[in-house]
Write the structure tokens for this entry.
Amino acid sequence: MDLQLQGKHALVTGASQGIGMAIAQALAAEGCHLHLAARNPQALQALAERLSSAHGVQVHTHPADLSTDQGIKSLAATCSQVDILVNNAGAIPRGSVLELDDERWRQSWELKVFGYLNLTRALYAHMVKRQAGVILNIIGIGAERLDYGYAAGSMGNAALVALTRTIGGVSLDLGVRVLGLSPGWVETEKAKRTMRQRAATLLGDENRWPEMAKDFPRGKLIDPQEVADVAAFLCSPRASGMSGTVVTVDAGFTSRGYPPPKPGTT
């Protein structure tokens, strides 16, 4: 299927690794010119060179801290004319309300919750003026299946679902689609760190982390490309009738639910 993305310009945040990198690769393969933002300039540049060489698209890099007002304003000013915004930057730590201190909680929300909100507000204004554009928020299943051991993540993700639906329910009348995508347990470095901690606690060996996914759908984590392919579709004109909704890519994990939390395993 031709996604009709050839020649579009997309901004992907958190693009230096994991899901963000996979989405950048998927969009480049469809002919999108890219703006890639993350904190690591070396990783961004390496990815930009690889995608430009492989797909013949223009790729610009923007090393930035999107937890700061200056980082948001600078990126929004530079990328004000993009057709597509993929909000993906953010890593909210695990922990219950008793385990996560105020500083870590606020710091993580500055990047993922307020970072998404502020970049959306800035670029949405330009898209509304042009009567065209797509905003895709990469959220997470913590919003759907609330997790005691992921308090800040569940609450923050729930806020981003509300943001997506609040804007997206009306935005299509203004020519702009606003959508969310909630991945489940994807094989990223963050997920593997959590799995290693659990393996060390329960099995005495962090290298046995793949065994922690034995009860997950298919007995493994989701490949980032499986998320990226759905993201590319949602960003494309092929999904022109979709706005104000959140699509889940979790291989059925949410429907299975979480096991009861065990002390020391969050």
